[in-house]
Amino acid sequence: MSIISIMLPIFFVFGVGYFAQRLLKLDTNILSKLAIYVMVPFLVFRTFYEQPINTSYGYLALYMIGLCTVIIVMVSVLSKVYGYSEPERSGLILASAFMNNGNYGTPLIFFLFGAAGMETAIILMVIQQLLMSTLGVYYAAKGSPEGGGVSAALKSIKRMPMVYGAMIGLAFQYLRIPLDKGIMEGVDFIADAAIPVIMITLGMQLANIRVKEVDWKKLSTALTLKLIGAPIIAALFVWQMPLDEMTKQIMIIMAATPTAANTTMIAIQFQTEPQNVSTATLVTTVVSLITIPLVIQLTM
């Protein structure tokens, strides 16, 4: 399968969401909540219920934490060099350290590797959600006018439905709790609907972003770290890990995905450089049409 045939359906669905939003002016918060709070938890539950627990879970968690930490350190060093304030540093962290492996990465892996790759992609998505809902919220709140990073991050942990889905799935698997065939078919229906809905939601979210004034230094820094630096760092991390080649490829490709769309909502909520974070989300998504195929070509 050619890279164009893989990327075309993904950006086609993004485009459908984008133009639907421009024409219909829908409330994207409703669709986003439907995907995040209803559909994705079922997708995550199914994966953790059916996927046997093994040591790769630990390596995936270490990798995600390490990748995020390295980028945060690099942003902090660059912020010192450029003389950025705390809100500017926090905004740049939001734009650079968190990948869009939900709306973008998971569908991409599905098109590349099929169902075999989805297990790894979903585990990475859950870990990323946990990081974004803790570290992401911490830096967003730290850079906001009100502050309160730690308390805001702790409160956000209670609102992570996909993590609850993972915990319940693991519990059901560990306790060997069987599910009725009809119930499992219902779970499958909802889980299978999650991917197209979150893809359309991303397109709609991109349509809501308005680029006014662009800080080119911050944008170029975010672009470089997110689309070039992150996959290189990821490759160095996974090089010596005792994982199969497909899992390593997925980890690197997921790292190369653009700025997470949810960081825009977090930045707006806490008023932490919302314009710069929104611009980074939009531009990295567009530019990834060029960079993602290159990363795929180098890793496959």
Keywords:
single chain, mainly alpha, Na+/H+ antiporter like fold
Can you walk me through this structure?
The protein is 82% helix and 0% strand. It is mainly α. The protein has a single domain, classed as Na+/H+ antiporter like fold, CATH 1.20.1530.20. The protein starts with a helix and ends with a helix. The relative contact order is 0.18. The model has no long low-confidence stretch (mean pLDDT 88).
Mean pLDDT: 88
Shape: globular
Largest sheet report:
none
Distance between the termini: 12 Å
Known CATH architecture? Up-down Bundle
Please write the CATH class name: Mainly Alpha
Structural class: mainly alpha
DSSP helix fraction: over 70%
Order of helices and strands: HHHHHHHHHHHHH
What number of structural domains do the residues give?
A: 1
If you compute it from the alpha carbons, what radius of gyration comes out, rounded to the nearest whole angstrom? 18 Å
Low-confidence stretches: none
Summed up, the helix count is: 13
Strand content: under 5%
> Total strand count, please?
0
Determine the CATH topology: Na+/H+ antiporter like fold
How are the elements arranged and paired?
Layout: H1 3-24, H2 28-50, H3 56-82, H4 86-96, H5 101-113, H6 115-142, H7 149-157, H8 161-174, H9 181-208, H10 216-238, H11 245-255, H12 261-270, H13 274-299
